[in-house]
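Shift notes (night). Ran DNA-binding protein while the centrifuge was going.
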Amino acid sequence: MGVQDQDWLPSRVVGEIKIRGGSLRELSRSNGLQADTLRNALYRHCPKYEKIISEYLNVPIEVIWPSRYKK
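Came back to this:
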């Protein structure tokens, strides 16, 4: 199993959002969700929330969570 086959760590996802000037809480609220809702995507398969994060980061969803979106 190579590095590209591993899901990003939650800290990396949060860090990438911060690098782009946002926060997980702000991203949740801007999508009409409760402040901590998107945190669920960091630990369990939540397609709707994963898509929001992926689109914000402009990174394909299968790159962030390859174990959840195997080709």
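Residues 40 and 46 are 7 Å apart (CA to CA). Residues 47-57 form the longest helix (11 residues).
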